[in-house]
Protein 1
Amino acid sequence: MTHTTGGRPGRRLTSYELATWRGFIETAEQLRTVLGGRLREDSGLSEGDYGVLLALSEAEGRRMRSSALATHIGWERSRLSHHLGRMERRGLVARRECAEDSRGAEILATTEGMSAFRRATVPHLRAVRELFLDALTPAQLDAVAEIVAALRDRLPPGP
Amino acid sequence: MTHTTGGRPGRRLTSYELATWRGFIETAEQLRTVLGGRLREDSGLSEGDYGVLLALSEAEGRRMRSSALATHIGWERSRLSHHLGRMERRGLVARRECAEDSRGAEILATTEGMSAFRRATVPHLRAVRELFLDALTPAQLDAVAEIVAALRDRLPPGP
DNA sequence: GCCATGTGATTGACACGTCAATCATGATGA
DNA sequence: TCATCATGATTGACGTGTCAATCACATGGC
């Protein structure tokens, strides 16, 4: 069942290797797109919105320092800042000055933001089950976990 | 080694399932980002540019109908149109009117475009080997191929 | 106290992607 | 022929993401 001819470090890629790579990256991208579309239909939230609101919903008092939020969801700060601007315009989050450090900002989810998040979460998790978990056998799911761990080891540390 | 408790259709996601899902989607995203950054450094091309030039480089006479190109690389037409506009401005491709159908456009890679593509290709494939293929055992690579096939079966057909 | 330096966060410019609308041309049928 | 509809492609508006620059405030050394 193994199509590779063993380790081939530094060699030209076989078409099998190339196709597997492309398949991996394209399938992940398509999954993101489809899930994102459903999320949008169900709740009007984007994947980014969902991630931000998820983090805030799990935080003490539904509020978090902007930098902590960025670290928590693994985003660059400028990305978060732009995104929060858009979410604020839509009334999903609010910014407050930070008491301890006047440079800082506290982000908090609005009632409307939490409501949209709750509306999103069940269908979103259902879609993850349907398109990802249900497509895989338990052994394949374990394989995904292993593979992800192996790939992460080679990846340079995040921002 | 199996962490799931067997098929759990319709149930709430376990934290293992959720973490595996998140790991999958985030790792793929990070791989794209890192590969994209290297590509940019090595050649000044984005991943999109690379895909377009790859398709053109393999086409008869380095030219292709816009719609054929879109289908070939799996992009929506408007996306391709915008992207070609940016590439044309940078001198990487050129648009010509199509002889057989005056509605159509022929896209062709310029000398400069092909030169950038050649500059990009070796380091790009090397990076794919380094960050993806070399990180996985042959059995894991086969597992990726299987998993990708299983996921694709559940995915709605493309644009 | 004051300045240099670091840190939290925002901004502007620009590339990328999607959606809906548009436009021109080809094909079809009364 | 001409009205209609389909098709190839582009456009505009807008959300998203990155990079480099900026701004305000904190902090530590003198």
Protein 2
Amino acid sequence: MFSQLVESFALSKLLTESPAKLKRFREKLLAWYAERGRDLPWRRTCDPYAIWISEIMLQQTTVAAVIPYFERFLDRFPTVQQLAAAEEADVLKLWEGLGYYSRARNLHAAAQDIATNHAGSFPRTAEELQSLKGIGRYTAGAIASFAFDERAPIVEANTQRLYCRLLGERGDPKSTGVQKTLWQFAETILPKNDCGLFNQALMELGGTVCTIESPSCGDCPASRYCVAARHDLQQQIPAAKRRSKPTPLVDVTVAVRKDDRYLIRQRGLGEWWTGLWDFPRLTLDETLLTRITLPSVPARSSRDQPNLFTREPVCEELRSTIEQFICDQTGVSCRLRGAELEVRHAVTRYKIRLFCCLADYQSGRLSSDQPLKWVRVNALSELAFSQPGRRFADRLIEIS
DNA sequence: TAGACGTGGCA
DNA sequence: TTGCCAAGTCT
């Protein structure tokens, strides 16, 4: 035990306080990155705008998911001025399916900020960058180092895991104390020059070698400096975080038909999928659920494999609840039809049973105090199963 | 400071 | 099927 403590201490000192070891570590890391680093679209450019877009898209999102969105976005908005001049709705539509839509709204707002308050030229320092909406400490450091080679440290999921293992840090990585240690470490190991390249190399190592489940320590240029590898603590470090169980919910969407069109509404502030278009949608409250019988599930269902139609009618209380909801939310009265659909979705912390009802317009005018539209749609059954963010708008015709 | 915010892939 | 996770930020 004592010898382990001595060794942990000695090793962590080696990396951060021995200039020779640190130099060797940097050389080995950069050599490894030159040989093994992936060729990704945003690594081929020094354009701060493109790097910014990629960094925002990559927040909590996999590389594979981002690539097509990144290409489309830059194709549509090649410069910060063009993004600033866009309608927010167009930016959101381009973002649809990526999730975390506030990223898109912040991106748009920040572009306008740059266009009007920074004379259209991109802020060059991490400090300035962090004053923009949606750019926190990590993203500011990433853009400043990748695009301008500022000596700015970075800590995000990949590097956090890497640093924790290198240091043998067993505490909760999210705790204030450990965060302070990690940011300090990130700054200490940064070389004088080529910081952008160095940061990319750190992230790449964390992302492809120093993985969560089975890190490839045999291929790691830093394993000889790694406390976790020395003591076989890769599974214990970093400390696992706990997640709460998803909350079960029952949602109902209603496709109200008038001639060949259906009623949709734009979701407002404080709701999920803010700014995206959706069928009117309500969450059934628990007391109602105790009184009614929901249509049974006809077949296998999962997040992405919706059930086929079921023809079970809803009970009278549910019918009147839904019809009243439509009237309150949209101003029109409607009559539910006999066909109801069901599907199950999991949305992050919620496990949602989703019923999709068809209804016929009866009478009334659309409320003028919120965005509502009658639109033609493609493939109603697919659309009814969709959530706003899951390519919903792609199935609408004549949305604007 | 913990919880909110989305979606898709993988075991 | 379920749970966990992915280049975080904001409140």
Protein 3
Amino acid sequence: MALKFYNSLTKKKEIFTPLHEGRVTLYVCGPTVYDHPHIGHAKSYVSFDVIVRYLRYLGYKVRYVQNITDVGHLTDNADTGEDKIVKRAQREHVEPAELVEIYTRSYFEDMDALNNVRPDISPRATAHIPEQIELLEKLIEKGYAYVSHGSVYFEVQKFKEYGKLSGRKQEELDAGARIEINPEKRNPSDFALWKRAEPGHIMRWKSPWGEGFPGWHLECSAMSMKYLGQTIDIHGGGLENIFPHHECEIAQSEAANNQPFVRYWIHNNMVTVNGQKMGKSLGNFITLKDAFKKYRPLTVRFFILTTHYRSPLDFSNEALDAADKGLERLYNTIQHLRERLAYAQDGSTPPHLYERLEHYKKAFIEAMDEDINTSDAIAVLFDVSKEVNTLLNSGEEIGKKCLEDIHALYQQLGGDILGIIPDVLESEQKGETDTLKNIMGMLIDTRCELRKAKQWQLSDFIRNKLLEVGITLEDKPDGTVWRKIK
RNA sequence: GGCGGCAUCGCCAAGUGGACUAAGGCCACGGUUUGCAAAACCGUUAUCCUGGGUUCGAAUCCCAGUGCCGCCUCCA
């Protein structure tokens, strides 16, 4: 068994081996913080979060870097648009720095809600201007970049391997169906490394070529080199960034360093909404904050993971509702397990229990090894639940140790690796619990007496009323349990 | 126009040459359990877009067709 990744560069699944044994360097293209994060961000970052979690589970020491783009991302790729940050700051009448702060916080807030582990380093482009300038100087010195009217461009023709990731041919690029001719460039496909700041442009830094600001592609090269070295193990990002962003990163980095930039390129697929591409211009944009009003963040996470990261994900209410119910099913089992655990005693081990647990664990790991097949991995969790439910309902005494070990399996696979099983379920949440628990205890005791006396009308009345306030009762052979529902 | 991807049960979605008489979830129906429920369990539901081909053997490979989608503007 070995972990395999589909490498976009070679277009093949490959067994993963890190450059340095036991350590993995991972860079994922982070957000441009000019708006609230949307469900597309969620798919991308949940996907890579699970990859990071799994690598760590396998025992690798992972350094996970994910940038925050706070300058240089233009509104189009022809190097002629406005800076997104500047544009949006003007619209919202705030300082660019303020805007960046607002949306960076919003970003982390939503990622935290999705239970993504924070990157080890979240470097900002504006905090790495010297590193970027240094890289530029190196590229100019080596003849890959040229200065033109205070801007610096990368001369694509000089880098023979340009196109190796995206499959674009040099000639096609120059034919440039939609690239506007920029007279400052030697060739239409050359891309900006550094842009001259026009008078009145707010975000500007001093450079050997006058005041300006860095191009979007440059930051990722500079920052990944700084924190992860000249060759990194994994670079991740959305499919749509293969061209031009990642192609440009390769060109800059490899031209500067004369060695491979990335060993495994991993790209996640896109989100559609009701079968349609999600885009700003189409107006079918769903922010996470909006999605969370309707669905729990972990439902969104679970939903994302039911599809493979390289497949497109269609976001629809029906699909989310189905995911939510499925997740609820998993949670029910876990809650019952935890309740049972609370009063379990030492006792016997059900026959073959440990063989079964081992079997499921193995199946789960095999799924994850196969290019992070979370869909299969989740199916394994449902298989486990089926068996555990049967066991819990069997009426047999189960030793505490066994219950703990079952629970540990869930925590490891569903909790640590997939991040869909929290330590405390919503239905178990504290807060008002002490009071609530007491009141519920009273109600359940009362109702229990009523049921003994076959006062069905009254006992059903209590149950229905509780349901109205979002609490469901389940009468089990060994007593009544309650839980909050959504 | 160039490049790439996808098409599997009512819906979502794994599987990419042989344990597939195709996983898992949702929905539906029947049953067990229950005072009735809930939860849970059991059962029922597909030959894999179409047509050719390769192979002892294909959902899985090749060719053609049809349909959908993405990138080359915005966007993870």
Protein 4
Amino acid sequence: MSGRSEVQILSPRRGSDYGADLSPRFLFRIGKIMAERYPFDQIESKWQKYWEENKTFKASDNLTEKPKYYILDMFPYPSGAGLHVGHPEGYTATDIIARYKRMRGFNVLHPMGWDAFGLPAEQYAIETGTPPAIKTAENIATFKRQIQSLGFSYDWDREINTTDEAYYKWTQWIFLQLYKKGLAYEAEVAVNWCPELGTVLANEEVIDGKSERGGHPVIRKPMRQWMLKITAYADRLLTDLDDLDWSESIKDMQRNWIGKSEGAEVNFPINGFDLSLKVFTTRPDTLFGATYMVMAPEHPYVQQITNPDQLESVEAYRVKAERKSDLDRTELAKEKSGVFTGAYAVNPVNEELIPIWVSDYVLMSYGTGAIMAVPAHDTRDYEFAKAFDLSIREVVSGGDITEEAFTQIEAGVMVNSATPDASFSINGLKPSVAIKKTGEWLEKTGKGKIAVNYKLRDWLFSRQRYWGEPFPILRDGDDVIPLSDSDLPLTLPVLDRIKPSGTGESPLANAKEWLEVVDPASGKVYKRETNTMPQWAGSCWYYLRFIDPQNNDQAWDLEKEKYWMPVDLYIGGAEHAVLHLLYARFWHKVLFDLGYVSTKEPFQRLVNQGMILGMDGEKMSKSRGNVINPDEVVGQYGADTMRLYEMFMGPLERSKPWNTSGIEGVYRFLNRLWRYFVNDEGGIIDLDDAQPDTETLTMMHASIKKVGNDLDALAFNTGISQLMVFSNHLRALNKVPKSALETLLMLLNPFAPHIAEEMWSLLGHSDTLAYKGWPEYDESHLVKDTVKLAVQVNGRVRAQINVEVDAAKEAVLELAFAQESIKQHVQGKTIIKEIVVPNRIVNIVVK
RNA sequence: GCCAGGGUGGCGGAAUUGGUAGACGCAGUGGAUUCAAAAUCCACCGGUGGCAACACUGUGGGGGUUCGAGUCCCCCCCCUGGUACCA
């Protein structure tokens, strides 16, 4: 970069607002403006090129030299819309920490990649004929260009892409591990079938009975699906949360999702059949209050036990329930529906015969698919009993069951709860105690047992799509034959045209040659799976591939894994708080059990960045027209300003609105810095080589301390504020000490690395700031000689005094009472108390 | 309904965790500079009263603890995110 004069010719402003006016007057104006703006575009491209050419940010594979720090972003799905200002928020935060940790002497792993399988590219292919691979590559190129324009310090040699064969080879390999461990199985599942999209959707992709994408209607249809047995890990996924450094709210979301509840399983013999209806309840204490039972419409016993004269109405109800989409279920949720089977069950505690009903308020997918109904102490049962005039019996006193169900566990006392022979009674107990006692009794008598249930369901792991990882299996009729490792990867066939099969199978059903595999020895024909894996698959383990991205022999090297794992800091959007993080944790635990990874959890510290809202305070969306384009911001203000502003807006984890004049503020800060310290010849102004004055020294060391502490706490906004305070202080000096300016640049470097590097080099340094040691602060410079104390009278500040640090109470009070304003407020009053908090405050209480 | 987080100037947000509320920035006002505007620089900037020193008041609302509360306790209101017939 040459001198300032050249800088003035090349305007950083894209001059569109000036039109074609080239009058002398206009040129004069341009000249003035340019003199006032620092040449960020030249500086930024210069340093980005420098970092790239020197591979400045390459993570070292020397696994012993330095302590490691693994800092990870949630890698993006490269959509056609390009980067959104929300993306760089998290990326900037991680980049600042990555740069900070490098300066702190860590070997930093900070990689980026692409979660590139997914429905949009496939839909685009169906609409336009463009192969998903082509469209995906284009999108990635755009994302990469945009991300690189912000000067992030990724180690690009480790870039990965989930749609690369070399990558998904190992995704398939992990699937085989799961399969071999018995954690992958096939099942006929009533799934969310969307005729419009020609695919089955996961629950999380269905919103109010419509597809999340496109809003098409969704109905339920049974299909053969791959499932992963995540429920086998439910308990570990729950308990291992405790040791993680994640926000409580995210941990709670996961806990709720796993939904562990403790209670009992109870068997109710069915009258006249050699069957018993098993139910799960969290309130075994209320067994004596069970006045009827309910089975889910899909319950296997329904047809068997239904009385012949009820058969017609039960069957009609069952069919109706089956057809109901989720939307219908929600809509009808307000009113309970159901039908009597004509059959009765025997309540094991009192031998009473109670009617068995069928209703869709009981779900087949939770517990046993049947419940004992205790209308007096369960709101749902209460509503149902009221609707169908079933009896309601109080077994916990303390509420008014003529009004509503009484559901409290700590209040209330058990009543009407003893077996006819009086051998078992819980009368008089608190429900919480009765729950335990009943559980023990059920175990002892064999009428039931203590049990635990989870809300978490097994993971529906197949999609009827082309653009996903093919399953590495062959099919021989109903038999499943896994491919051997040497047959991996099983690559996607290249299709001339991707179109729905129409049968509900994926477009792969159209690829006849790919689909059928002939065994050359026997001539036997096997078929491939037409389902592909969901998008979650690739993102479940990408953090492991970053450790060893080019390895062709194994998914990752075990030694490297031991060194780099766990991820020390993982930052991403809260939308992945549950599913992605739960699925990835599940795979990680499986890999841990198999000995492929050394930690039981993958992500030690997790932070969710808040959303960046539009200027109107609303969520950014095309329809609202409030979307901010990062390219425009970078073009107009530069990457350093963009980075700084995104961090200055407010705490990382909170949602906050974008504000264009706010960005002007940080832009002015960088401009002032440049303008003040860089002279007209493009060099640094004359600096003072002498030791800074006391005040400057204090400011300098206080800044080192505060910025460092704030970075450790991810409190970027207050760190930047301190940089502004420090720089304002330096600008007010007659002569700026060189050491102070150097310190400022080092502190600024993680936040605004381009301008920091440029000014650092203008100071005559030939090294990069990237590995410059982070400055150390000296506590002795932070200790002041005197301190300003507020003097309060009755809690109101009436004066301020300067005293020596740790001054004696007597001396402080003497000075305080000497103040005119204090005398005034104390005069003629009785002093009740004199409080002196050393170096903090004085409070005189009078009456 | 349930779970979690949050309500501080005109705006984004600070506040050493009980010790001078409003750091830093934006917007605004006044001044310098300019033929003029923009940019830049300086000053002011919660509200009410006062020429002023200053006084009163003020962190969603109401109570409480304390010499002292944005911060701790109790009750209530509002906003955001998650979840929803999970027995």
